[in-house]
């Protein structure tokens, strides 16, 4: 096989002219003949055993060559890419220039490639780490939140106040008809939490059990669903019950109920430790993100092909889809709520995607420069940990692509190691 490579740095594309001799193509011709003779039995020959010349007579020269070319072209393209260290990032466009049993195969492949990255002075990078502080007020805030999670709700005969929970039947009408999602029965409304359209909770202040009310509302101009912004609606409400929230006293008894804590002091210590840990993780993620951004700042890139950016947008869309699934929503419902088309969402992600691609390319170049490698055992351990979240291997196979998972984990671990090395080389200052 002979290969001629032309690189177009401005477009981040490569053109490979690949020539394969007849004897190199012969095994593919033979396998194509075997396949065709299996598909249609030829008189006098066992399936798959007819000679090439017999197959040509039965199916035609062109059919045989096309069958052989379908297997030969991808094989020789991949071999050429590997032999010439071409960082291909997409399927190539192929033009077959010659294909024959005697003359062999010649084709031209054009493919998008990774851009070249030139790193500047990494040692000149400076980042700041913030000192982590957790105050008594922070701990008290967590304590109050935990206490509220153990609240009791007691029915009261008085009118509803802010902070109460009112159980209601309601209908919200627009143009005389109940709007989509505008009707519910025995629905708890927590007054003062702002989960409903402005005006709904406010109009329930003072309501009593058994009382019916009607009132007008107006959807705010920044409402999530564009079609409802500024629109007026009419609500009909029937209250069934008013409940008062009773928050337990914060003391040793509550601490023991919340876990294996001897007393309130032990609970406070655990909360403070957890808060410190959370803040440390957030701060580490923040300044490592800053490190990566500053690495991009000292790097130069040739043209970044749209294929890379579109792939990153695909990943971001899939991540959004997964997040919505956890919220029991679909991407289509999300788009309807935002009043946007998928193309608009993708366009809005483009700048962020390009930045992510640059970070990935810069870290890849830095990893290569520093000879950073990830051991196969490390990848396997992380893959196994990830797969434990599935009930069975069969469910895991249905949900994920094993090869893609391994590649993503390898990418993540390499970047993590690169950031650790970058931290050692950069100047890290501490600030409050």
Model description:
This protein is an alpha+beta fold and 432 residues long. It has helices spanning 22-39, 52-59, 61-83, 136-149, 252-258, 264-297, 306-326, 331-338, 342-369, 376-387, 393-399, 402-425; strands spanning 2-8, 13-20, 93-100, 104-112, 117-119, 126-130, 152-155, 165-174, 177-190, 212-218, 232-246, 299-301, 427-431. It contains twelve helices and 13 strands. The strands form four sheets. Strands 7, 8, 9, 10 and 11 form a five-stranded antiparallel beta sheet that branches. A four-stranded antiparallel beta sheet has the order 1-2-4-3, covered by helices on one side. It folds into three domains: 2-113, Alpha-Beta Plaits; 152-246, Chitinase A, domain 3 (Roll); 257-431, Trigger factor, domain 2. The chain is extended and about 95 Å long. α1 packs across α2, α7 (306-326) packs across α9 (342-369) and α10 packs across α12 (402-425). The longest helix has 34 residues, at 264-297.
Total number of strands = 13
Mean pLDDT over the full residue set:
90
Give the CA-based shape.
extended
Q: What structural class results from the helix and strand content?
A: alpha+beta
CATH class of the largest domain: Mainly Alpha
The CATH topology of the largest domain comes to Trigger factor, domain 2
Oligomerization status of the protein chains = single chain
- Uncertain parts: none
Rounded to the nearest angstrom, the radius of gyration is 33 Å
Percent of residues in β-strands: 15-25%
| Whole-number tally of structural domains | 3
Distance between the termini: 63 Å
């Amino acid at each position: 096989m002979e290969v001629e490579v032309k690189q177009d740095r401005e477009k981040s594309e490569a053109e490979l002219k690949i020539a394969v001799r007849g004897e190199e193509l012969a095994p593919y011709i033979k396998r194509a003949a075997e396949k065709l003779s299996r598909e249609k039995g030829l008189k006098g020959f066992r399936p798959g055993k007819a000679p090439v010349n017999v197959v040509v007579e039965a199916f035609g020269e062109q059919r045989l060559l096309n069958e052989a070319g379908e297997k030969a072209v991808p094989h020789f393209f991949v071999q050429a890419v590997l032999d010439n260290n071409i960082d291909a990032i997409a399927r190539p466009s192929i033009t077959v220039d010659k294909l024959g049993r005697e003359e062999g195969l010649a084709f031209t492949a054009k493919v998008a490639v990774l851009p070249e990255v030139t790193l500047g002075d990494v040692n000149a990078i400076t980042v700041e780490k913030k000192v982590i502080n957790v105050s008594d007020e922070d701990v008290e805030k967590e304590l109050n939140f935990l206490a509220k999670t153990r609240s009791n709700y007691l029915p009261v005969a008085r009118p509803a106040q802010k902070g109460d929970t009112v159980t209601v039947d309601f209908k919200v009408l627009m143009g005389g008809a109940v709007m989509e999602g505008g009707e519910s029965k025995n629905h708890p409304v927590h007054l003062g939490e702002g989960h409903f359209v402005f005006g709904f909770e406010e109009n329930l202040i003072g309501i009593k059990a058994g009382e019916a009310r009607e009132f007008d509302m107006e959807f705010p101009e920044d409402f999530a669903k564009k079609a409802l912004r500024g629109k007026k609606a009419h609500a009909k409400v029937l209250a069934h019950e008013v409940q008062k929230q009773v928050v337990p006293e914060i003391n040793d008894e509550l601490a023991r109920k919340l876990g294996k804590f001897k007393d309130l002091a032990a609970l406070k210590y655990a909360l403070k430790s957890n808060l410190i840990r959370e803040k440390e993780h957030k701060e580490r993620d923040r300044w490592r993100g800053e490190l990566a951004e500053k690495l991009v700042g000292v790097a130069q890139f040739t043209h970044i092909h749209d294929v890379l950016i579109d792939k990153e947008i695909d990943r971001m869309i899939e991540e959004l889809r997964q997040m919505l699934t956890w919220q029991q929503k679909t991407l289509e419902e999300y788009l309807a709520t935002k009043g946007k088309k998928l193309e608009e969402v993708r366009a809005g992600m483009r700048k962020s995607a390009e930045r992510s691609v640059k970070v990935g390319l810069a870290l890849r170049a830095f990893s290569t420069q520093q000879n950073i490698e990830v051991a196969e055992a490390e990848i396997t351990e992380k893959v196994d940990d990830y797969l434990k979240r599935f009930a069975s291997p069969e469910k895991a196979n249905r949900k994920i692509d094993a090869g893609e998972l391994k590649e993503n984990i390898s990418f993540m671990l390499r970047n993590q190691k690169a950031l650790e090395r970058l931290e050692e080389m950069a100047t890290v200052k501490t600030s409050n």
